[in-house]
Write the structure tokens for this entry.
Amino acid sequence: MNIVSFIIYCIVVTFTPGPTNIVILSSVQHHGARKTMGYVGGATVAFGLLLAASALLNRMLADIIPHILGVMQIIGSLYMLYLAYQVYTMGRTEENPRQSSGFVSGLVTQFANPKVLLFTLTVIPGYVMPYYSSPAAAFIFVMVITVIGFLAFTTWVVFGSVFKSFLQQHQRVMNSIMALFLVYSAVMVSGIL
């Protein structure tokens, strides 16, 4: 197993912008770092559960995935469009819109995030299973990847906290940009382009 390639793959996928990371950045801007950590907790738990499911059900998933991938792409795209609307309208009224930054919202976002689904379905079978067959090894790798994901999410919280005043000064522009990134993600995931 090429451990360097494995770590680079995990870092690139988890740290690069995606629906979860964009929502984390937006949530820090509007709700603060402490409240956003609940969202991070939910996203991390879902990430770990998806990795564990991939490790445990790899053979069965290989048969099922071609049938449900299209449905998941549509559901994920629609959810990303909903998130884009929530991010775009944030801060435009006196009362903040009900964009959740809690545990359940983080959990739901991860389960509907096609980027995460594709990553979790490829990393264990592609990097771990060809070299390690024991359940203990799979568990260790699931935990390592989950920690990497948590570190990525937390990095976005820190980034949002450090640049919070800048983000708030340019709130409309930043909300529009983040919403456009989510719309772009939704279009790319849906397979329209």
Notes: Residues 94-98 have pLDDT under 50 and may be disordered. DSSP finds nine helices and no strands in the chain. The longest helix spans residues 58-89.
